[in-house]
Amino acid sequence: MSRVGISTLLSPLIQRMSLYKIERIKIVVDINALMFIMSKCAIRHHLKKKFSLKEANDVLHYEEFERTEYGSYCIDTIKKAMEILRDEFYCVFVFDGKTFPEKQLDIWTS
């Protein structure tokens, strides 16, 4: 994962829109996809090993992911990404087609 942040990647797109449009736009982010991408990057980066994760829904229960000491690092990274996407880009998170309550992530990981 490069050190370029989500804000850096999305800011040129956001800057081109008028403030009126930004207030009315909601970007939908699938929480499964977000977890899948962030988890896979964390596993590759810290364990120096590539895994074939086929189901985004199973990322948090994947045996190699559960065993790694970097699991909490990855969860913290996902939470930070969600915070940036929500606060700076007005994103709404969905899980299985329904709005995803952010507290649900705490329930999954406790």
Give your account of this protein's structure.
By secondary structure, the chain is mainly alpha-helical. It has one domain (6-109). It is 58% helix and 10% strand. The chain has six helices and three strands, in the order ααβαααββα. The longest helix has 19 residues, at 71-89. It is globular, with a radius of gyration of 15 Å.
What distinguishing features does this structure have?
single chain, 110 residues, mainly alpha, 3-stranded mixed β-sheet, 6 helices, 3 strands, globular, XPG N-terminal domain-containing protein, PIN-like_dom_sf
Helix-strand layout with pairing:
Blueprint: H1 6-15, H2 19-24, E1 27-30, H3 31-47, H4 63-67, H5 71-89, E2 91-95, E3 98-99, H6 103-109
Parallel strand pairs: 1-2
Antiparallel strand pairs: 2-3
Question: What is the gist of this entry?
Answer:
By secondary structure, the protein is mostly helical. It has helices at about 5-15, 20-25, 30-45, 65, 70-90, 105-110, and strands at about 25-30, 90-95, 100.
Total discrete domains: 1
N- and C-termini, Cα separation:
26 Å
SSE ordering: HHEHHHEEH
Strand content: 5-15%
Helix content: 55-70%
Q: Uncertain segments of ≥5 residues (pLDDT<50)?
A: 13-23, 46-53
Mean pLDDT: 60
Strands across the major sheet, in which order? 1-2-3
Mind telling me the C-alpha Rg?
A: 15 Å
**How many strands in all?**
3
Main sheet makeup: 3 strands, mixed
Question: Number of DSSP helices?
Answer: 6
The shape is globular
**Content-based structural category:** mainly alpha
Organism: Physcomitrium patens
InterPro entries: PIN-like_dom_sf
Protein name: XPG N-terminal domain-containing protein
